[in-house]
Amino acid sequence: MKKLLILLLVPLFLASPDQKVDAQKTNFDYLDIYDLQYVDDPQISPDGNTIIYVRHQFDVMTDRRYTNLWSISFSGDNHKPITSGKLGYGTPVWSPDGSRIAYTSSEDGSNQVFVRWMDSGATSSITNLTHSPGNLQWSPDGTQLLFTINIPAEQPKIANLPSPPEGAEWTEGATVIDQVYYQADGSFDTLEESYSHIYLISAEGGAPRKLTDGNYDHSSPSWAPDGGSILFTADRSGNADLDPNNAQIYEMNIESGEMTQITNKRGPHGSPKISPDGQYIAYTGYEDQFVGYQLTDLYIMNRDGSNLQKISDDLDMDVSDITWANDSRSLYFRYDEEGNSKLGNIRLNGDYVTVASNLGTSSIGRPYGGGAYSVADNGRFAISLGSPDRPTELAVGHFPTRMAITQLTNLNELFTESKNLGVTTEFWVDSSVDDFEIHGWILTPPDFDPSQQYPMILEIHGGPHTNYGPRFTPELQLMASKGYVVVYTNPRGSTSYSTEFASYINQNYPSEDHNDLMDAVDYVVDLGYIDEDRLYITGGSGGGVLSSWAIGKTDRFAAAVVAKPVINWYSFVLTADMYPFFAKYWFTEYPWDDPEQYLERSPISLVGNVTTPTMLLVGEYDYRTPVSESQQYYQALKLRGVDASMVKISDSSHSIASTPSNLIRKVAYILGWFEKY
Ligand SMILES: CSCC[C@H](NC=O)C(=O)N[C@@H](CC(C)C)C(=O)N[C@@H](Cc1ccccc1)C(=O)O
After folding, report:
1. Superkingdom, according to UniProt (predicted)?
2. What DSSP character marks residue 215?
3. Which helix (H) or strand (E) element contains residue 664?
4. Could you tell which of 320, 496, 575, 654 is best to mutate to test the pocket of ligand 1, judged by most ligand atoms within 8 Å of the CB?
5. Rounded CA gap, 302 and 306, in Å?
6. What confidence tens digit (pLDDT) does each residue in 562-573 have?
7. Which residue has the least CA distance to atom 26 on ligand 1?
8. Whose CA is nearest to atom 14 of ligand 1?
9. Which of 140, 193, 547, 596 could form a disulfide with 539 if both were Cys (CB 3.0 to 4.6 A apart)?
10. Ligand 1, atom 7: nearest CA belongs to which residue?
């Protein structure tokens, strides 16, 4: 196994002014997507000696992503598969003594919990569930496992219908909906009303015991170190659907089932975890101000909820994925800083340090943040390590000794050795509106020569409270490999800079984020290698909002592809899957009470200015930004006589990139449209 040493903070990737292509290599192309392999969810054993990780691969024949579990030692030796085949294995968790792992798999046809004894390799499914398990957690003594499943509630019955005569072929029937959430992006069928409940099962199998009840969702279970109780979050007010963002922390005694509510401030209380010494509870969240962006902080409190303290005051970046250090004196956490996904360690007094940078995800789409890690009792850790130049690999380190991060896998070595990729260069530009500086990246084509003139694509991220960064992005690499300079930025509203920057667009979106995008375009055009007659603009979701807004404000773009946009906030909040959240947090009134507020921020209000040839592109089953949003814009453009087309991607939700062929279609239609103009 070849080991690569990576410095703790990898310096930023500056493009050489003149990129040389290797004649032995070929440019990255559509079908190459199927050859990529990604490391995800690395789980280090409690003694820090072995890492189990999830390997993602793609099957060109079935067009599916499949996952298997692999094992490797901390030294990089003994790299071997735990599972194989295309059935899907994931969410591995080590037993506290490191003798077993539990994981989920659909090997038996439906998703079940499996346990594997690591010394012998003996493996067995220990459940026989009718619904998929999640959130697997070993009890501290290793005898039991907690998990959650979604249990359907009783369905409404409004009509007494006659049965068809025997042998008759009638139409399917009707779908009766009376719950608040009846569609969720990613689930193509209408949702059944269901609630997430916590179950306990012996690690050797048998009948599971249901711990929670009622028509409430119970999430994020975790054990107390003595194994006598568990923590979880739930909104048991009875109004959780229409009044989101208000889950509280509960402690339940395992033996008696007695439940105590520990928190009561209005707002989300995420992932509660008890310190190994049993003294504190840590959780992530905020006190709800009913606006779109609210910084997620890290809190600690005593076991009974007293002495609540926010310990992440100095960070000003969202905290997620917390893990107590073994000595109960600090916590590990994930955060994004200036478009870079990081692992940090924070002491109880709020002092924090970066443990590792450049964490990566398994996305084949655009360069959004994220990543995964785990930490052993002795401070050894494993991360999913990203880079702009290759898919995510596995890396390890040792926090107490500040050991340099060591990359253990090189699953994509042959891929990177045989492909010419675009090169990512960072830039900052002063805002033309105020004192903010706007961060962006230029992805230049493999054979880039700055003395030549290139077409340019501005690609805009969604969220809007997310961030792009110098991360591997097959979607944008495909555009670069076809000869485009691709520019992407983090306009105001993006996370990973400051609360002030992210919350600027609270109930004010889109606004000066548009100016930030244009400042970035001006900056890159001024570098001298962009053909100003071939400026193109695209973006998805929130990026669809901003790209349609932009062509209503300027005609500088030769063509636009507006992907899965919101075009009309009034119709959006009454058709989108998460409508209670959007209506209550992104606007101050309901649409019928203040339609002006909705219209003035809707791209449809500017469609009368648009002359730019525009393609709409949307997944046929997009329930986040419904197809009707794209249709409104398409029909308005047609009525105005503007060149327009609309591409509906079959079998696609909002996450078009979750199926490789749909991602390929998305890029091919975007580039096909731009080539026309
Ligand atoms: C609690 S915030 C809910 C909004 C959510 N945020 C996640 O990023 C979201 O879906 N935002 C949309 C725009 C909104 C519906 C107007 C969005 O821009 N999505 C982004 C990010 C994303 C990527 C993959 C799956 C879900 C969201 C996008 O599609 O690029």
Report:
1. Bacteria
2. S
3. helix 660-676
4. 654
5. 5
6. 999 999 999 999
7. 655
8. 542
9. 547
10. 463
Strands 454-460 and 485-490: parallel
pTM for this one? 0.95
Q: Looking at ligand 1, which residue's alpha carbon is closest to its atom 24?
A: 655
Nearest-CA residue for ligand 1 atom 6 is 463
Please, which pLDDT band fits residue 18 given cuts at 50, 70 and 90?
Answer: low
Q: Which residues pair with 310 in a beta bridge?
A: 299
In 3D space, the residue among 97, 65, 96, 100 whose CA is nearest the CA of residue 82 turns out to be: 100
Q: What is the mean pLDDT of residues 206-221?
A: 97
Residue burial 646-665, b: 16+ Cβ < 10 Å; e: rest: bbebeebbbbbbbbbbbbbb
Task: Give helix 474-481 / helix 660-676 axis angle, nearest 10°.
Answer: 40
- Which atom number of ligand 1 is nearest to the Cα of residue 581? 1
373-395 pLDDT per residue, tens:
999 999 999 999 999 999 999 99
Cα 473 from Cα 618, distance rounded (Å)? 20
Q: Ligand 1, from 624, 656, 663: best to mutate by most atoms within 8 Å of Cβ?
A: 624
Question: What is the arithmetic mean of pLDDT over 526-530?
Answer: 98
| Exposed / middle / buried, residue 276 (Cβ in 10 Å: 0-12, 13-18, 19+) | middle
Res 172: pLDDT = 85
- What confidence score (pLDDT) does residue 122 get? 97
Q: Two tokens at 173?
A: 């029937």
Nearest CA to ligand 1 atom 27: 463
Closest CA to 118 of 46, 67, 199: 46
pLDDT confidence of residue 157: 78
- Ligand 1 atom with the shortest distance to the CA of 566: 16
Taking only Cα atoms into account, the Rg of the chain, rounded to an integer number of angstroms, comes to 25
Q: How far apart are the C-alpha atoms of 558 and 566, rounded to whole Å?
A: 22
Ligand 1 atom 25, closest CA = 655
Q: Which residue has the tokens 């084949």?
A: 364
Whether the pLDDT of residue 10 is over 70: the answer is no
Using the predicted structure, report yes or no on whether residue 34 has a pLDDT greater than 50: yes
- From-to residues of CATH 3.40.50.1820 in the chain: 420-676
Which residue has tokens 């901003």? 546
Q: What is the pLDDT of residues 190-206, one digit of tens each?
A: 999 999 999 999 999 99
Written out in words, the top-level CATH class of the domain with range 420-676 is: alpha beta
**What pLDDT shows up at residue 426?**
98
**Encoding tokens for residue 620?**
């046929």
Q: Helix H segments across 513-617?
A: 513-525, 542-553, 569-573, 579-585, 595-599
Structure confidence at residue 132 (pLDDT): 95
> Which atom of ligand 1 has the smallest separation from the CA of 576?
15
Task: State the Cα torsion 79-83-88-91 to the nearest 10°.
Answer: -70
E runs forming strands in 126-214? 134-138, 144-152, 194-202, 209-210
- pLDDT tens for each residue of 618-673: 999 999 999 999 999 999 999 999 999 999 999 999 999 999 999 999 999 999 99
Pocket of ligand 1 (CB under 6 A): 462-463, 466, 540-542, 566, 578, 581, 624-625, 654-655
Return the ligand 1 atom nearest residue 582 CA: 3
**Ligand 1 atom nearest to 625, measured from its CA:** 15
The predicted pLDDT at position 9 comes to 34
Nearest-CA residue for atom 1 of ligand 1? 581
39: which 2 tokens? 């490391």
What amino acid is encoded at 167 in this protein? Answer: G
Ligand 1 center from residue 261 Cα (angstroms): 32
Q: Give the pLDDT band (50/70/90) at residue 1.
A: very low
- Two structure tokens written together for 424: 């990512």
Q: Quote the Cα angle for 339-361-380, to 5°.
A: 95
